[in-house]
Amino acid sequence: AASLPVAVLLGGRFGESVPCGKAVSLAEPARMVAEMEGHRTDGYLRFQLKVGDDPEGDIARIRTVAGALRPGELAVADANCAWTRHEATRVARAVADADIYLEQPCETYSECLSVRRMTTLPFVLDEVLETEDHLLRAMDDGAMDVVGINYQAAEYDMILAAYPDKPVVSTEDTSQVMTRGAYATDYSKFI
Q: What number of other Cβ atoms are within 10 A of residue 59's Cβ?
């Protein structure tokens, strides 16, 4: 099995290519759009907006970047647990008409679930999913639309088997599958 492409091990090809994302650093809204445009030029179609500063500034950031998205692109506003429940609720309500996802707005699962229940925006959770039980509870509670996996590559099989129709995104697992330093990777094996 080790000589098989990852796509085969995961059940087959998704397509000829996989849209990849790139983080957009927290900055003034126009600067974030400029950074996103640079990533777009490099071929990226998914953008993880780093937010979690002050709610009013984050609302402006999200609205500005969402307004600059092109058809087929996707933005996820990732607060990395920085907002309180009421701040996250304010932000979610203020950007409810934007075509974005919210990721990990609050520090605790219960806070995130509370915000999720007050918005129709698609939700991604990752940091609060520390165990298989947490993940299964979040799935059963409808707490997220996309499973975010950070540093938990060993959980992929369990998640995909239990929830075959739920999208899964991995944003911070490279260190588990590669080494640092000089290396060459034939990426065609992974598509």
A: 20
